[in-house]
């Protein structure tokens, strides 16, 4: 009898941002495969008998090959085990959740995806930025600055969309992002917020403008993981209820 794989979003770091469903899945898991952007504190909700396997994949660092992770999940599921694949943020926002679910389903494994709070949402909220705001921002666009094939984003469309941009994996590409958005016609004074380690005790935020963001980040020594929020709302600073409870 085949087991089941849960692809679970662990949220951005603060264990209180886990969903009840994530906590239930963790409690049921025989095996937990944990990504390195996941706060290990969430393992408090896994069973003491569960086997915990770190499978970090941070860009630039030594990482576990994706094919190996696939095979691990498959092997344990075929042994009838309940497997939780724990990912930072949401599994389907730049988290390969879609490909893993498809790969497992093709092999007859039962898969369930549990949403997590993605870093972009939590990062903005914890420093008082509403990503949409009536009369100011009619939407949000989540994009990654990092592509496998080096294909380029449609910066013109992004700059003209009138939505707040939330950029993941952008720390090493600040110069390029700045150039592309300026060239695409975004105003140089557009507010930018760069939020490092969102929702964790070591969270830091750096406010700037599109024009100055690269210099500001360098002076601030901004490090990954960080998200960039670009848009009028990034100038907002009032504390939102979630920020006060964090
Ligand atoms: N699935 C994750 C994203 C994984 S991609 C999610 O939904 O959040 C990795 C990128 O996410 C990092 O480069 C960074 O841009 C962002 N990120 C993840 N955790 C973060 C955190 N705690 N604070 C700020 N950015 C974070």
TrEMBL record:
UniProt keyword annotation of Transcription present: no
The entry's keywords: Methyltransferase, Porphyrin biosynthesis, S-adenosyl-L-methionine, Transferase
SUPFAM superfamilies: Tetrapyrrole methylase
A Pfam family recorded for this sequence: TP_methylase
Gene3D superfamilies registered for this protein in UniProt: Cobalt-precorrin-4 Transmethylase, Domain 1, Methyltransferase, Cobalt-precorrin-4 Transmethylase, Domain 2
Single GO MF descriptor: uroporphyrin-III C-methyltransferase activity
InterPro entries in the record: 4pyrrol_Mease, 4pyrrol_Methylase_sf, 4pyrrole_Mease_sub1, 4pyrrole_Mease_sub2, CobA/CysG_C, Siro_Cobalamin_biosynth, Uropor_MeTrfase_CS
GO biological process, one term: siroheme biosynthetic process
Pathway it works in: Cofactor biosynthesis; adenosylcobalamin biosynthesis; precorrin-2 from uroporphyrinogen III: step 1/1; Porphyrin-containing compound metabolism; siroheme biosynthesis; precorrin-2 from uroporphyrinogen III: step 1/1
Assigned EC number: 2.1.1.107
Superkingdom, natural source: Bacteria
Stretches assigned to the Tetrapyrrole methylase domain: 4-213
UniProt keyword DNA-binding, yes or no: no
Family of this protein: Belongs to the precorrin methyltransferase family.
The name this protein goes by in its record: uroporphyrinogen-III C-methyltransferase
């Amino acid at each position: 009898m085949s087991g089941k794989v849960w692809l679970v979003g662990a949220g951005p770091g603060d264990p209180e941002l886990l969903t009840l469903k994530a906590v239930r899945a963790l409690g049921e898991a025989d095996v937990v495969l944990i990504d390195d952007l996941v706060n290990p504190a969430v393992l408090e909700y896994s069973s003491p008998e569960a086997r915990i396997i770190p499978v970090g994949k941070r860009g630039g660092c030594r990482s576990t090959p994706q094919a190996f992770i696939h095979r691990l999940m498959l092997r344990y599921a075929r042994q009838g085990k309940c497997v939780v694949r724990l990912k930072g943020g949401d599994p389907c926002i730049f988290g390969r959740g879609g490909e893993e679910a498809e790969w497992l389903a093709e092999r007859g494994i039962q898969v369930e995806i549990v949403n997590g709070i993605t870093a972009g949402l939590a990062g903005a909220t914890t420093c008082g930025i509403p990503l949409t705001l009536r009369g100011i921002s009619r939407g949000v666009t989540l994009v990654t600055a990092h592509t496998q094939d080096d294909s380029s984003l449609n910066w013109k469309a992004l700059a003209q969309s009138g939505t707040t941009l939330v950029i993941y994996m952008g720390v090493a590409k600040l110069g390029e992002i700045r150039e592309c958005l300026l060239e695409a016609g975004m105003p140089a004074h557009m507010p930018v917020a760069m939020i490092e380690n969102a929702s964790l005790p070591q969270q830091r935020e750096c406010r700037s403008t599109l024009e100055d963001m690269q210099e500001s980040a360098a002076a601030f020594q901004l490090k990954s993981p960080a998200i960039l929020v670009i848009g009028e709302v990034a100038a907002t600073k009032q504390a939102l209820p979630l920020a006060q409870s964090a």
